[in-house]
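note to self — DONT lose this again. spent like an hour looking for the file last time. sequence + predicted structure for the chain T wanted, 210 res
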Amino acid sequence: GQIAQLESPQSMANLAIQLEQVGVHLMACQTERRRFHGSLADMTAAREATTVPMICRDLIVDPYQIHEARCYGADVVPLQVGILEQARLESLLDRIESLGMVALLEVRNPEEVDRVMHAGGTVVGINAWSLTSDALHREAFAEIVPGLPESVIRIAVGGVESPKDLLSYASSGADAIMVGESVMTAQSPSALARGLVATGQHPACPSRKL
């Protein structure tokens, strides 16, 4: 599957509709205000305009944020493993699942993968972007994914600018690709998304049998 990430506070519903029409399977909406100027209202607009599941893109550190995300229409909530102590990680994971949502556990190194497995996570996002800088490490997925059990859903996050990047992640075992900045800054977001979706659905694109 392919995931497109929404950032613009304007025309959120129209953009979401366009992305669903070109075949995006799952959408993510920025709700973090300080760095990305997103809002929960944006996510609600996208949620109401589409039928595909919605990810709330924010730094989640408190159970209140999880309830808030659910109230505003989120189906998936991300947890940045690197900024959470193990007890809090497990507590937030339990809270997400208790509300009928899916926890996307985002990791950046093998040690964080070990913590996810201990917590019982089943959906893992391997994020190529550093949490502390603008550094991008596309090789992180290929380096980290061998440590994941076959039953875990693997999502590649960050660094996709073209179908070639998508194929690279797929060949390393990605089940889905999260695409954000490149889609949102494209001259035609829907055209780029359409091309990525077509690449992901092509018979030549590697895929795992879950």
